[in-house]
Amino acid sequence: MSRDEKIRSMLTEEEKGMIDEELSHYPTTRAGGIEALKIVQRRRGWISDDLLLAVAHHVGMAPAELDRSATFYNLIFRRPIGRHVVLVCDSVSCWLMGADRLRDRLRHRLGVGAGETTADGRFTVLPNVCLGACDRAPAVMIDETLHGPLTEDELDRLLDSQMP
Ligand code: FES
């Protein structure tokens, strides 16, 4: 099987069906490209170069264009990540309300800083521009759930409650 054929066969029929269904809600393929990547990422954890090519081929987009969109949308992970992703807000309302303390607690608890993954692969910590919850500052998103305002102790409890 050639590399091209291999890439084309990477997506499962189920993934292709889900992507097609999602794309039917968008006026253009380009508008739905990120959603297609999100579908695949939800099932596979992150988007490798080959997966990006497979999605680009399926939705009929140029790989470079899809890659550019993925770069701008910082919730598409282009590198392996931990089983849980902790997004720490890195914008002004959260700075003012103590985001630094949460970052320090994460570093102390998990032994990793922004952009890093714990040695056991359980958590990846990523900075994120405003999470859209400034009234809940300082805010953190763990996987797809937003939390805030958070104290360091509440953050500890949240980390403890995540599945191993
Ligand atoms: S500044 Fe942190 S959620 Fe908006």
CATH class call of the largest domain: Alpha Beta
Strand neighbour order, sheet with most strands: 2-3-1-4-5
CATH superfamily of the largest domain, by name, is: Glutaredoxin
- Summed up, the helix count is 8
**Helix percentage:** 40-55%
- Structural class of the helices, strands and pairings? alpha+beta
User: Roughly what is the average pLDDT, rounded to an integer?
Assistant: 93
Using the coordinates shown, work out and report the CATH topology of the largest domain: Glutaredoxin
Give the oligomeric state of the chains in this entry, treating copies of one chain as homo and distinct chains as hetero. single chain
Q: Which cofactors or ions or other ligands sit in this model?
A: FE2/S2 (inorganic) cluster
In angstroms, what is the radius of gyration? 18 Å
For the report, how would you describe the main beta sheet? 5 strands, mixed
Strand content: 5-15%
Parts with pLDDT < 50 across at least 5 consecutive residues: none
N→C terminal distance: 38 Å
Q: Write the H/E string, N to C.
A: HHHHHEHHEEEEH
Count all strands and give the number. 5
Give the overall shape: elongated
Architecture of the largest domain, according to CATH?
Answer: 3-Layer(aba) Sandwich
